[in-house]
């Protein structure tokens, strides 16, 4: 009898051990899953490219969505209030571990909702974070729960590059005039402010500006494009080239189409690589792939306990330059070898 | 002849000969290497420049612009501008000719016609692949001026790229090196001889003299506590041995003096003892007043002492008491003390 009882006990212990061994990983995984929230301001190519590389990189470094992290993606459709409401709902359910934000409006919403919560916030694709009220100063640790990367190429670099091209076609005795039709979206406002500062310092370029109100949401774009069309009509006779603004309007393919179809004025500075493919002479932006990957690395670091307040907000290290050779040849512009070499694979015709 | 002179006479010619032959060898080698280095320098410069030409051409070709004249001309002008920017030696120049021997670009302001008459044949030969016949070893002569050059071809633009340098620069450099080498050799020889003599004097002559003086002092019976030779070499060891030897001699002399003193002291003491003993023996030998009855003896102070006491005090004799036969019979008649035959004997 005793022998039989001992045998049963032994088998019971072995079975319990095996079950514990099998269930332990699920138990451990369940404990380690952390919540990461990504908010995309608008469904524009640049934002989506950033998001794709961000998610890919997270998986590469072992933060797989659904297993290691619970990745929640919110698309705000250009509506800051919508972004704020969605983030508040998430916060009510529970404090997320990290929030990553793509573009300015969503970043402003996240900073408003998560202020003083201690939740690490990393913003990217924001061209003027100081002007947008996200941080106090570029280049220094923020000392708060917010940090990120500036998504812009310094205005002086852009004007210098473009002037090397366009001055080949404009008489040297007068300034080159760029038409700048923009919405009141924060990054566009910050961009034109910087460009005008440079124009004020140098007498060989000038900006003719047409401003229109920013309209949020998917329905806002047609309204803005219609307003932009009026700007094209107003400025076409007064400008040598178009300069596409930063922000949702400048990044939208229909805006490029509008400038190309409604006027004979060439686009000198495009806002996206697609605009160059469509006919803009040149564009230079921070490298979207590098930006997305870098953001993922920071998010992973925050999940491991890095304090975002110790990380300064700096400009990106890698850029993409695109050239449309057909436009250059049509304008009798010779692209200097250093610019052509910088463009690398991003040299387009058509 | 002093030892220092002998050593100097042996070493100085050896040093002079070594430096002379070393200078001769280095001058010869320098001349050879200078020529080789000049070509290496020219090759490096022209290859860097060729890389720049290839880069510009590749950019055009990759982007389908190699047939667009405005781009080609602009890029060739960029190449010329880059050629002017390259930092090269003052006596050298970088220039480009076409396959027909016409000058396209020169980094120096030169007369195109003069350049073409000298370099045109070389350029044409280079294009034909006949460069070795036009020039055997990378030199041409312009009015007896020897010019070194290296040449590269760039067929896509029908260019012949030259980098030329006045050979006289090398000769000047060679002469400067010879002069410098001779000067340095003489200076080195002088310095070396001075150093050798200084070291010989410092480390050999002066210590030997010091040790010699110390040896003389020891020989004259003097005491040498310290010989001022601080080195730890053989001479230093010798000095230390000499110091030890001097100390040992001094010690031995002191021991001998001490032993003599002790001996003299012992002789003096023994003499005194003998004299004392002698004086005591003389007293016993003199007239001793003795009582004719009790046999007491009167001392010098007039006291009468027992005979035994006197003898004990004035001699080294020891007394043993006994009774003679007659006294035994007289004083102890009742006792038969002399039954034993040995008693009193």
What do you see in this structure?
- The complex is a heterodimer of chains A (350) and B (345).
- Chain A has 350 residues and is an alpha/beta fold.
- Helix content of chain A is 47%, strand content 19%.
- Chain A has 13 helices and 12 strands.
- In chain A, the strands form 3 sheets. A 5-stranded parallel β-sheet of chain A has the order 2-1-3-4-5, sandwiched between helices. Chain A has a 4-stranded parallel β-sheet with strand order 7-6-8-9, with helices on both faces. A 3-stranded mixed β-sheet of chain A has the order 10-11-12.
- In chain A, helix 6 (186-201) links the parallel strand 6 and strand 7.
- In chain A, helix 2 (45-60) crosses helix 11, helix 3 (80-93) packs parallel to helix 4 and helix 7 (220-235) runs parallel beside helix 9.
- The radius of gyration of chain A is 25 Å and the shape is elongated.
- Residues 27-31 of chain A have low confidence and may be disordered.
- Chain B has 345 residues and is of the alpha+beta class.
- Chain B folds into 3 domains: 3-188, PAS domain (Beta-Lactamase, 2-Layer Sandwich), CATH 3.30.450.20; 221-286, no CATH class; 288-345, no CATH class.
- Helix content of chain B is 63%, strand content 11%.
- In chain B, the strands form 2 sheets. In chain B, strands 2-1-5-4-3 form a 5-stranded antiparallel β-sheet, sandwiched between helices.
- The two termini of chain B are 97 Å apart.
- In chain B, 15% of the residues are buried.
- The model of chain B has no long low-confidence stretch (mean pLDDT 84).
- Chains A and B meet through helix 13 of A and helix 1 and helix 2 of B.
